[in-house]
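Take a specimen:
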Amino acid sequence: MAPRVIDPKQVVDALLDYGAAIAARPPGEPPAFTADPEANAFLASDPFAFLVAVICDQGIRAERAWAVPLELRRRLGHFDLQRMAAAPHALRSAFATRPALHRLVNTMPIWVSLAASKVLSDYGGDAGAIWGDEPTAAEIQARLQAFVGISQKKAAMATEILERDLGVVVHELEGSDVAFDVHLRRVFLRCGLAQRDDLEHMVKSARLARPERPGSLDFPVWDIGRRWCRPTDPRCDECAIGAVCPRLVAAGNGVRGM
């Protein structure tokens, strides 16, 4: 069967419509990063908790990663940056206590301790200062990537979340980017927005597809990748963009990673 010929603009419009629908929530309600309202409220109210969640969003499901800060505070009995910076061994114990907070029980405590040290030295102990001066999207991404353990994927994702979900003032959103993760890679290839599984190519493809805010494609693509556009047996007929997607399923079959 010949692949369906679809206008890429239809795909982009469908992605944006779906993204707006899943991002909508009642006024005053914090984003549902996890199933725990207390964890969500902590992430929305404590900038360092948000930063820790971004760091931990690797190698495990997002909902588990974003629940780490609250449980870490419970296990430590505090969420004090100076103590976390000075005692990585205590963080290691908190992460490793069963059930382990993260699959990477040796790496994450080091990264969190280094993040606490950097926030103390570079931002006066206030993680909110990373994004609190109304920076551009590109500036936030660069600042976040300066933290050990925050990759392009995490920085791009966090920049979008800060503006979209937490009300942070971010200028020049044309400088935002999609997060190069396994879901985006697979969906971009299958829906024809990219032709190669390459970070630079996919970032450029998003900028061409949505020049005014490339990063706005990230959330709907990520959700579609987890929900329908699976590595095997994708559920194209159920997918939110199934009606306009060219369904180039084979193009994404070789995508591997976390």
Notes: The radius of gyration is 19 Å.
